[in-house]
Amino acid sequence: MRISIIAAIDRHRAIGLGNKLLFWLPADLKRFKALTTGHTILMGRRTFESLPKGALPNRRNVVLTTRADNVFPGAETFSTLQDALDSCLPDEHIYVIGGESVYRQALPLADELCLTEIDAIAPQADAFFPHFGTEAWRETKREEHPADERHDHAFAFVDYERRQGRS
Predict the structure, then answer these.
(1) Residue 103: which of 60, 73, 132 has the closest Cα?
(2) What b-and-e string marks burial along 47-76, b requiring 16 or more CB atoms within 10 Å of the CB?
(3) CA 115 to CA 160: how far, in whole Å?
(4) How far apart are CA 88 and CA 114, in angstroms?
(5) What does the pLDDT look like over 22-66, one tens digit per residue?
(6) Which residue in 8, 22, 58, 142 is deepest, having the highest Cβ count within 10 Å?
(7) Pairing relation of β-strands 40-44 and 93-98?
(8) Whether the bond into 99 is cis, omega within 30 of 0
């Protein structure tokens, strides 16, 4: 099983405000779709509720919730991250897509980070990506994108892999 975390973060690791994305970056949304299609996406209840059309197509949607009575059409639900991971096959690629508490739980287990690092600071945010450092992660790929007519801010797609022998 491979666990990847995918997120868009600003310079202070902010990821959201009021259960919404902080920045509208069409290239980031396109990358998200390209990476996650055909794989499993794992998210918290609030992240699922933020999806405009519900479960994302062509992906196995897995939602973590502590409320046993919650039903999420098109998604499987589990009460813990471990239960969700135990339901996955050994060759399954899981993308953790948020929110803050799910990222925090999954970070120690992740093999890879697929981040969009936005060269801006959100004026307000109430959700943040957990701290990760170069002692545990090494950058393997960086693709810079300047601001343009479709993107108000410069950003970079940056991939990190967990260093061997680190937890």
Answers:
(1) 132
(2) bbebbeeebbeebbbbbbbeeeeeebeebe
(3) 8
(4) 20
(5) 999 999 999 999 999 999 999 999 999 999 999 999 999 999 999
(6) 8
(7) parallel
(8) yes
Q: What percent of the chain has pLDDT over 70?
A: 98
Q: What is the pTM of this model?
A: 0.95
Name residues whose C-beta falls within 8 Å of residue 127's C-beta, 6 or more positions apart in sequence: 14, 15, 16, 17, 98, 99, 100
Nearest to 96 by CA among 132, 120, 121: 132
Tokens of 167: 């937890």
Mean pLDDT of the chain: 95
Residue 39 · residue 145 · CB < 8 Å = no
Structural domains of the chain sorted by starting position, each given as residue range(s) with its CATH number in brackets: 2-162 (3.40.430.10)
Token readout for 24 is 């509208």
Q: Give the integer Cα–Cα distance in Å for 63 and 26.
A: 25
